[in-house]
Request: fold
Amino acid sequence: MKRALGIACVCAVVGVSTLPPIAVAQHFNAAVTGAPEIVQSHIDSSFSRLNGSVFGGEGTFVAEHFAIRLRYAQGNVSAKSDTGIDHRQVVEGEALVGYRATQWLTLWAGPTARAYTVGDADQRWLLWSARVTGRGTLLPDKMQTYVELWGALSGTVGNPAMKAGGRGADMGLELRLSSETPLWGRLGYRIQSSHADGLRETVEAITLSVIYGFPQ
Amino acid sequence: MIRLSITLLLGVVLLFALPAVGEAQSATQLLDQGVRAYAVREYDGGAWLLRRALSVEGSGALTTSDAARATMYLMAIEVARNERDSALAAARRLVVLDPRMKPDEQSFSPQVIAVYQEARRNTPSVTIRAPGDTEIKPGSEVFVVRLGSSTAPDVTAVVTGADGRVVRNLYAGTIRDSVDVRWNGLDASGNTPPAGRYSIVVTPRGGDRRSWTLRLPLELARPAVDTMPLPPAPPDSLFKPERGDYKSAWQALIPGVVAAGAIVVVPNIVASGEHASEARFIVGGTIAAAGIAAFFSHHPGQRIPANEQYNRNLRESWKHNVADTERRNAERLRGARLVIRPGAPSLTTSDTP
Reply:
């Protein structure tokens, strides 16, 4: 997967110079998101599957080829186990800097963090990721799809910190809700898998968002 | 003998020098040479030089006082050559140029003075005086000429083009002593006339309409104005198809299929060994359905209202830009200065040869 992602990134960067310029000068959008979330957690040989939901928001700013994206969400996931209910608070976020090569292709890089709080204990994942986002138009100015793939370049988890890695994807459909206002809806599916020595977590979410501004 | 030698010498010099003089020397230099020729009684050469000096138009033309001086000497030469009609014509012209002029009795013979007095008695007493070169902003500033007369004639004053066509009526009425006639630099339609040669023509009204014509030549010049080029029409490549075709239908379908396929396949790659949630198929199915719907909305012949609107906006935007550029250019042209260079006035009477 890492090799494939690397090849995709290299191809995208090489292709940038031959792609047409972008028309949009500056643009900003903001979104509120709610997502039912499924967490599959492996700690050594034990396995637990937690369900819950997270809510949050995100904002994207684009100026010519330059882009910034910030995302934050928090919520709870829980699972029934032999010892009772495994209840975790979840906080996740990302801060990405992007290069918008064309209107449909953006390259991103930046940290992605995810933290659990179980009672007084914390488990924090911090991954430095590189991403590629592609967009396709179904109906101009009305409906579009997106696919985002990412891989961790480096990462840590826990205290004391252990090396961690991961990869993920985010795909979905964006639909304009009103022709009078720049209000969009988004239905997406997100999956990420993070791993470290003895730890492995897979997080899936079906995301529902309301976006103000043209999605980038 | 000495006088004959000088005359011959001057004649030879003029013979070789005149063609070059006509091309290279200014009206003032021609005037000075003409006066010197009169002083040494080289009348033919002098008349030629003075007529050349008076014929120069535009920015190099003689000033009114120099034109009066040239005409005075020309009249004196014609008297000396016994060309009475030509002398009278020159005298009439002199009266128009400078009605208050009194020939110097020390410099000119009694015969010359007598011809001038005769012309003064018989020439319509209408004069026109113009300022020197004047720069105005058409429409908001004016170019003023003063018509003068001691006999209160009823006249019209118009601006005419080089072809005689009336560009603008300036004045119709009686000249009591004097009247200032103003021209704002615009034609009868309110537009600035193109650069070129024009005249202010004053003629009497009523029965003796053709008895005399007073003409003040004008040269109009307009400094270059920077105008913006009109924006080019948007190229065809910028327009979107207004009717569906197979190409656009497939282009609408492919993003939906790719995203839906990614939702099915990618989780198995990202999280191999895990059992990805089947809820993702809801999302994938929705996207696939949207892609199929988009495909059919683009099928051949189907109108695409969004593209029609987009193209309409593109055309309207271009038309708006063109109109805006044209308006700005018109404003710049309207704001451009107009340079008016008056020449020496001339009077034509019904008995002018």
Observations:
- Chain B has nine helices and ten strands.
- The two ends of chain B are 38 Å apart (CA to CA).
